[in-house]
């Protein structure tokens, strides 16, 4: 009944011109605003050249969920137009994708290829998906089997890469190779190795019980710790990527996926209460560098916050994480209300903007506090705006 009411509500606002009063659904408002600006459409910011971008893949994932919930064909058409900008009719992927970089980032657009093939049966989308999946066959790995984030990051596993690579890996396996127990075991291993090598232990300074941004298995990076080679800080968005990957891959895990589901459920249930407890008690949201709360130059960052809201509300809704006292949902509601009151900016043309999303976070240099707080904060950064659509979809299903 709640879902039916939500769909009915959206039906009353989906066909309003964007210049009219603000839609009652933040998910719709945010998605429509991004579409008006031409974001996430398979082209660069100038709208001229094809670009294979994980941000676009994240936004397309949100549009797919919004389309499935509302039936508004606009969202499906936008996904298809965006993918058609980066996939030739013969299925070759063009734009900025270079196979030999062995970067996991571009792979996040792959689930859109698979979705479009399932919906349209056009072979070009399957061909493009095969190309991305084949990259993983040669992806460099640590001696333990963890995919390197990129070829140029020697022996390094990053939390970001789990969202980029493993969501594609699981989506592809679910769609085309569901009986491949070796693939499911490999996906399980990717999540577990990352968790085991980056989880803060009880003796860590500024212990949050959460996960460092990444690790260097070779211990040669300037930031690598003496014990497991992990990076120095817990960066909010890296953990957000990993949290979203947990819930999104759990949905894809079939009964024959071996230890995948119990492994991911265990990790999710370790992290969920720790994420809840890491929120600032006054505002209810999270610091950019979670291991340095309140430190000068640290700030409340928006993209990581809405990633947590999406992941934890979805986890509770689907029964992955028990919430008997309602404290997780209550904390996510508090955070969401802060988000809409502080990070949503109404514009005079009827669109909305999204603020306080950090532009980038990397382990290519020092990986320390000063690095993270020195990165620019962007308006309408799609990594944050797409996650806000996802968080809004979950929040609005509570109502």
TrEMBL record:
It comes from the Eukaryota. SUPFAM superfamilies: Six-hairpin glycosidases (SSF48208). The keyword Hydrolase applies. Pfam families: Glyco_hydro_88. One of its GO terms (molecular function) is hydrolase activity, acting on glycosyl bonds. Residues 1-21 form the signal peptide. One of its GO terms (biological process) is carbohydrate metabolic process. Keywords: Glycosidase, Hydrolase, Signal. The keyword Signal applies. InterPro entries: 6-hairpin_glycosidase_sf (IPR008928), 6hp_glycosidase-like_sf (IPR012341), Glyco_hydro_88 (IPR010905), PolySaccharide_Degr_Enz (IPR052043). Gene3D superfamilies: 1.50.10.10. PANTHER family: UNSATURATED RHAMNOGALACTURONAN HYDROLASE (EUROFUNG), WALL GLYCOSYL HYDROLASE YTER, PUTATIVE (AFU_ORTHOLOGUE AFUA_2G14630)-RELATED. This is Six-hairpin glycosidase. It comes from Mycena alexandri.
């Amino acid at each position: 009944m709640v879902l039916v009411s939500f769909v009915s509500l959206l039906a009353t606002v989906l066909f309003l011109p964007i210049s009219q009063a603000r839609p009652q659904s933040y998910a719709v408002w945010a998605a429509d605003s991004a579409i008006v600006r031409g974001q996430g459409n398979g082209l660069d910011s100038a709208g001229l050249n094809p670009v294979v971008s994980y941000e676009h893949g994240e936004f397309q994932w949100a549009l797919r969920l919004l389309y499935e919930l509302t039936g508004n064909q606009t969202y499906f058409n936008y996904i298809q137009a965006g993918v058609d900008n980066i996939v030739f009719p013969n299925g070759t992927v063009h734009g900025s994708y270079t196979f030999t970089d062995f970067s996991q980032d571009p792979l996040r657009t792959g689930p859109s290829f698979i979705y479009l093939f399932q919906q349209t049966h056009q072979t070009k989308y399957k061909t493009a998906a095969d190309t991305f999946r084949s990259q993983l066959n040669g992806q460099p790995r640590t001696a333990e089997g963890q995919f390197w984030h990129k070829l140029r990051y020697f022996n390094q596993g990053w939390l970001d890469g789990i969202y980029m690579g493993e969501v594609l890996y699981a989506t592809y396996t679910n769609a085309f190779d569901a009986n491949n127990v070796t693939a499911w075991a490999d996906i399980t291993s990717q999540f577990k190795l990352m968790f085991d090598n980056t989880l803060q232990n009880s003796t860590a300074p500024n212990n949050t019980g959460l996960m460092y941004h990444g690790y260097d298995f070779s211990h040669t990076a300037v930031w690598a710790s003496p014990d497991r080679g992990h990076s120095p800080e817990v960066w909010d968005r890296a953990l957000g990527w990993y949290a979203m990957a947990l819930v999104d891959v759990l949905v894809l895990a079939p009964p024959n996926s071996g230890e995948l589901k119990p492994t991911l459920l265990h990790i999710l249930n370790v992290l969920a209460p720790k994420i809840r407890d890491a929120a600032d008690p006054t505002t209810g949201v999270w610091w950019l560098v979670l291991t340095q709360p309140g430190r000068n130059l640290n700030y409340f960052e928006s993209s990581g916050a809405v990633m947590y809201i999406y992941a934890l509300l979805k986890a509770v809704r689907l029964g992955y994480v028990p919430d008997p006292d309602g404290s997780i949902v209550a904390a996510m509601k508090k955070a969401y209300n802060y988000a809409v009151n502080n990070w949503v900016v109404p514009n005079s043309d009827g669109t909305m903007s999204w603020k306080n999303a950090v532009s980038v976070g990397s382990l290519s240099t020092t990986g320390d506090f000063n690095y993270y707080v020195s990165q620019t904060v962007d308006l309408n950064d799609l990594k944050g705006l797409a996650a806000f659509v996802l968080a809004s979809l979950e929040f609005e299903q509570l109502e």
